[in-house]
Structures are given as C-alpha cells and as structure tokens.
Amino acid sequence: MARTVLVTGGNRGIGLAIAQAFAKQGDRVAVTHRGSGAPEGLFGVQCDITDSAQVDAAFTEIEKELGPVEVLVANAGITDDTLLLRMSDEQFERVVDTNLKGSFRVAKRASSKMLRAKWGRMIFISSVVGLYGGPGQVNYAASKAGLVGMARSITRELGSRNITANVVAPGFIDTEMTSVLSDDRRAEIIKAVPAGRLAGADEVAAAVTFLASDAAAYINGAVIPVDGGLGMGH
Ligand code: NDP
C-alpha cells in the first residue's frame, strides 16, 4: 500500500537516498529543503526544522497535496565539531537545536495525525557516534544519543496505537558530511570498521524502508546500526 512519507533533509545526501528508495517502491514522498528545491520526482517543501512555524506550514502543505504524513524520517542534521574546551554555547545549542529539537518538532507535528489514523512510523537518523562518542563531537554525540531516549519514550507513549519509533544509527557514509574528513582520518576510520570501507547512502535507506514496512510492525524503540560493525555492542 502506498504511503505518504516525509524525509527531512531529503534534498541531498542520506536523506535523498532514503526519499528515492521510498519513491521507487511507489510511495508519495515529500522532502524538506532550505531553498535548493527538491530533486525530480519528490515533493519539496521549504522548511528549516529549527523553526516550529515553518515545520507546521510544511506539514500543512504536504497534507493538502499528498495527505497526512504516515511515515516520518527525521534525517536532517548538522555537525559543528571542535574540542570541548573550545566549544561555544552557541555551537552546542545550534547542533542540538537542529538534530534533537528539530526531530522533536517534526515528531510532535506528525503524531496527532498518526494517532488519528491509528498507524504511523517514525524513524530517527542518529549516528554510531551517539553511543560510541567521537572526539570533537560533544554537541553532535549528545544530540544523536538524545534521539534514542526520545524514540523510546514515543514508543512507550504511542506503541499501543500501531505507531513505531525507531532509530537508525549509521556509521561512516560517503556523503558531503564525511567529505570534509582529512585523508588520515578517513584511513583511520576505515581501519577501525570491520567491514573495511565506508557505506553508500543506499545501505542506510534499506534499513529505513524496512522499518517503515508492515513487516516491521513489532520492531519498536530499537536502535538499528548500519555501521559495518564499528559500534558493535554499544
Ligand atoms: P548532509 O550534510 O549531506 O545533508 C544534511 C541534510 O540536512 C541536508 O538536506 C540539509 O539541508 C539538512 N538540514 C540541515 N540543517 C537543517 C535545518 N535546520 N532544517 C532543515 N534541513 C536541514 O548530511 P548526510 O546526508 O551525511 O546526513 C544525514 C543525516 O545522517 C544527518 O542527521 C547526519 O547526522 C546523519 N549521519 C550521517 C553520517 C555520515 O557519515 N554521513 C553518519 C551518521 C549519521 P540543506 O540542503 O538545506 O542544507
């Protein structure tokens, strides 16, 4: 059955791969962008997830064009790395406001319609770094770990209404976000990953579309790693 899907930050990177995977299986897919427009075949809504009014307007537009959001993928995220000693309050707050509070904003807005439909899927894109930690990533890791507590609380609140809230924790994926890594850091990462390579964004998308499917109805509050074995046991 075709669903209405919203992928935040679905205009590029991992989000785009996720959006395209849903579109390929016949779903109606909306993506947010902050001015770049949407790639072909996807319904674009301009939305900065740090602004609740913009989030509300984006959902209203999607509801009008495609129907209520049944599958929410909270993917939009940023990094702003620096060591703890040098990290400003602003750097910490901006990353948490985007990655964690931005996910809260879209989850909250999606939840009322999911409750009415007595069906919904929320998938939060975290990171291996959320539970593994990363030097220079106090802000980013805190925001990504926070998504786990958030998803599990949503599971406890809404789990009896056929609504699932799961977390996908990618390892290192070849996108613009990782293109800024130095060659030395990239080599170090590849050495640490049992799979011995970075992943393609489509490998994250495969986990996300599965969690959104009817087959995954009994998977709730889970953290699914897609990290080539990097975070094992965390
Ligand atoms: P990119 O930097 O390639 O893309 C980030 C996306 O987030 C863009 O679509 C961007 O929109 C959007 N975005 C950022 N801030 C906002 C905002 N305030 N409002 C709306 N949209 C926003 O990142 P990736 O594709 O690599 O990452 C996607 C997700 O996966 C992130 O949450 C990231 O933390 C996570 N992740 C990535 C990993 C990797 O190795 N790449 C590993 C683990 C997790 P715009 O085009 O407008 O800037």
UniProtKB/TrEMBL annotation:
Keywords assigned: Oxidoreductase
Gene3D superfamilies referenced in this protein's UniProt entry, alphabetically: NAD(P)-binding Rossmann-like Domain
InterPro entries listed in its UniProt record: KR_dom, NAD(P)-bd_dom_sf, SDR_fam
Domain Ketoreductase stretches: 3-176
Signal sequence, renumbered to the chain: none
Matches recorded under SMART domains: PKS_KR (SM00822)
Highest taxon listed in the record's lineage: Bacteria
Pfam families documented for this protein: adh_short_C2
Annotated PANTHER family: 3-OXOACYL-[ACYL-CARRIER-PROTEIN] REDUCTASE, SHORT-CHAIN DEHYDROGENASES/REDUCTASES FAMILY MEMBER
Protein family according to the UniProt entry: Belongs to the short-chain dehydrogenases/reductases (SDR) family.
Protein name according to UniProt: Beta-ketoacyl-ACP reductase
